[in-house]
Design brief:
By secondary structure, the chain is mostly helical. It has 14 helices and eight strands.
Length: 351
Amino acid sequence: MVRKLERGGQRKFVIDFWYTDAEGVRSRYRRDADDQTAAGAHAEEQRLLAQYGALAPVAPKEKPVTFADAVKLFRTTRLASLRPTTRRGYEIMLEGELVPRFAKRELASLSSRDALDLDADLARGGSSPSTRRNYLIVLRSVLRVAHQGGILGSVPELPELPRVGRKAVTIPSEDVVTQMLGSLRNDDQRLALALAVYAGLRAGEVRGLRVGDVDLERKVLTIRRARCRGQEGVPKSGHDRTVPIAGPLLPLVEAACTRKKTAPTAYLTTTRAGEPWGEFGLRQVLKRAQHRVGAAGWGVHALRHRFVTSLFQRGAPATVIQQLAGHSALVVTERYAHVQEQDLREAIGRL
């Protein structure tokens, strides 16, 4: 093969080919052509091949594309565009099972059987259907990106994802929530949990809310970001949303804005040390508050459930609740229309 290269600002014709010598050893010939014209370089190449007798030139063997190569491409393209929380979840799946299992496998050799074996091993290890489903989703995503990036000819037909049933969600009653908030003596702690109860903020959105996101004149919050593991990204819905500040929440928000001296970039609620909330810190605040009122068994997200459920119980339309909660689809909102245990008892009592 004759290659045209730039060297020292000058164009050079280089003769470059692989061949097998008389002893069967694969070797490479690579030198500048004596005749630095296109026609002369090609003629010289043919003379050199003839000089090596009947030994046929051998193309260099390409290194097979492995699953590790596909993961590298996935990380620099698709994974980099995901929210921090989603990105972390994908990394856990990749490093925990998929990379150790498939890293050295030739990408084109992966098949439906490999996915079935993976799922079976996860099931034998005690993984829940939802966890097994997530592993297969990540595997499928890596293969699809590899196909789109041109390093995989076609995506193998993978098995159906494990079915995941809905779990009953425990929602704290309004009385318990009121008692719990009243038990907190620290204003920042009370505000952090109240934002989930009265504005429906996710934990990451509580951690990421800043003073500049509060409009006291209009009495609204604008949810622009979520904070997870010290990194900030867009909310789960992928877009901003506004939530009117509820009556019980307003004095807490006003007091926080006063404490922060209306600095727009300051976090609206922080730890005692003035630092942004971390995942553990916010969970501990809730855990201690539950302990004071004799409650247990639910996390920060249950306060958001309380918000959405309260709106349904008060007759708010599902489409309005969808916007307030920042759900991507109405079907997600309707799943939050939980019926309280007391409502179930009252219904059965009518029998």
